Amino acid sequence: MPALTLISSQPGIQAASDLSDAALDYGRAALSENTMRAYRGDWLEFEGWCADRSRSHLPATPATVANYASSLADAGKKVPTIARKLAAVRFFHRGAGMENPTDNAGVAAILKGIRRTVGTASRQKAPATVDVIHAMVARIDADSLQGKRDRALLLLGFAGAFRRSELVAITVEDLTFSDEGVDVFLSKSKTDQEAKGQSVAILNGKALKPADRLKEWLDAAGIVSGPIFRRFKRGDRLSDDTLTPQAVALVVKKYAEAASFDVASLSGHSLRAGFVTSAAENRASISRIMEVTRHRDPRTVETYVRRADRFKDHAGDGFL
Q1: Global pTM?
Q2: Which of the residues 78, 190, 209, 307 is marked catalytic?
Q3: When you count CB atoms within 10 A of the terminal residue's CB, does the N or C end of the chain come out lower?
Q4: Is 294 a catalytic residue?
Q5: Is residue 314 part of a domain?
Q6: Selected catalytic residue, list 93, 163, 164, 294
Q7: Each residue of 271-320: pLDDT tens digit?
Q8: What contacts 151, CB < 8 A, 6 or more positions away?
Q9: Does residue 263 sit in the same domain as residue 198?
Q10: In this predicted structure, what is the pLDDT of residue 243?
């Protein structure tokens, strides 16, 4: 595969061989592991598409990229997916020190046409609001060790509005318990790619008590250091392996089904979306919500607020 973008963007650096191992490591850290994994998969797909049509993939021409984007749209791919795949093409061309074929007026025009034809709207997963969380937690066997883990995972994920990747990366060393709840230190997150660190205050509250449930799980499992959410082996034996982000979604779906909710409409992200929606419904300010969610753009939060308020002060109230 081509070298990193970092390699071609620095004056006097023409190839990966010009860089030390340390420099290459820092270059690889420019993108998150998840982004790099997606880019690699997208690049291999583009390479295969070009090979099937006897086209050059590196360098690729703007015409090749335009035809590729069109084929993706014809195959039913959504606009964000197409944009990500072209971002991978751009990334690897720049990394190889070659001209970016996506930076072309013709390609831009075709992408604009795809957006207008296909549309950019996507069906979002439903939020797991506080009522949903209560119903799901009620279906958990809290006497079992795995039940204690799942309960703590759902409640912490909801109360901290954590992304799946953030939730499974939390360690005991990141936790500071107090009478009010627990502070969770995130060493790195999607909105903190430079790893400056962010602290999230988890209020214990009066009903869900996420901090208490988390401590119950850690005490029962005997976890005193390392990852707080771990996999179970066969026979309900707890392992040292960290739970995966995908497993978070499976836990959500497991108890959503047990509580008779539409499983297809809920995912791991539903915990985060559920906190924002519940906070908005309880009239929390956008700035206060962002303190927990760590959104960088208030417009993202405003979308949830508008959705939560869509039937309040409705224009049709009074005559419908």
Answers
A1: 0.64
A2: 190
A3: C
A4: no
A5: no
A6: 163
A7: 999 999 999 888 888 889 898 988 888 887 887 777 777 777 777 777 77
A8: 137, 140, 142, 213, 217
A9: yes
A10: 94
